[in-house]
Design brief:
Peptidase_M41, three-stranded antiparallel beta sheet, 319 residues, 13 helices, Methane Monooxygenase Hydroxylase, Chain G, domain 1, 57% helix, ATP binding, Helicase, Ruva Protein, domain 3, ATP-dependent peptidase activity, globular, transit peptide, mainly alpha, metalloendopeptidase activity
Amino acid sequence: MSDTLDLSSYAQNLPGWTGARLAQLVQEAALVAVRKGHGSILRSDMDDAVDRLTIGPRRVGIELGHQGQCRRAATEVGVALTSHLLRRYENADIECCDRISIVPRGQTLSQVVFHRLEDEKYMFERRPQLLHRLEVLLGGRAAEEVIYGRDTSRASVSYLADASWLARKIVTIWNLENPMVIHGEPPPWRKKVKFVGPRLDFEGSLYDDYGLIEPPINFKLDDQVAERTEELIRDMYNRTISLLRRHHAALLKAVKVLLNQQEISGEEIDFILNKYPPQTPLSLLLEEENPGSLPFFNNREQVGEFEYAVLSQSGDQNV
């Protein structure tokens, strides 16, 4: 096991995993390290093992074309970059990106892995935290619009579905955005005790037979909820668009690096944000000899190669 490897971070980012499951993860990482010829288990081996056990092995023979890879990279980078920008400029209490990959695995063509927060953060989520998380989910479509204009694709559809679900929860169940009174559903302890056996036909209604939910008094409630949800998503989307447009150069640089390396870490995203501050002209990026590389930062590769070289030398001396 490499000394630079922190097993506690993997245990925190994999909630619900038992000790036996985590032991299987380390065993899988050891097998990955052996296949790659490493002398010890490195961080890249653990990440590969996590992906194999959670998503699946790499898909061989299924590769996207250049245009498809660009779309997937723009979507995933937009989601990750939005989280880093919100944490940096608005002190948002949300997850930061651990790594991005556009290598097809299992049933997915790309993925973003986030660092999980403490359990208490999820037990007592507040309105600013939920709104920031909504902006992160909208970052995929916003990044596509910043780079390609209104010519967006289906690459960000899954994120839009999650954003719609979250916005509807904020408006209705949590009642956090412009609180509204929902009529027609009395609490369970005020409902009349009424139970009728199940009907033999399928014409019975749950309202009449079981008395589970009272018919709503406000017949326009669904339309009002849909309107409020759409308004909330539109406001958060406009904020995300303006945020990414101020960092257009950093967004484009991260996409090019991801296309070149197939994977990019959260540390590399922070490095790109530091090197390309807001309002950086795109001409500086286009004038670079190789825009898809990070000549001053290859943290993961340098650490892995250095550790492997040291371990190989010590092994040769022992032999």
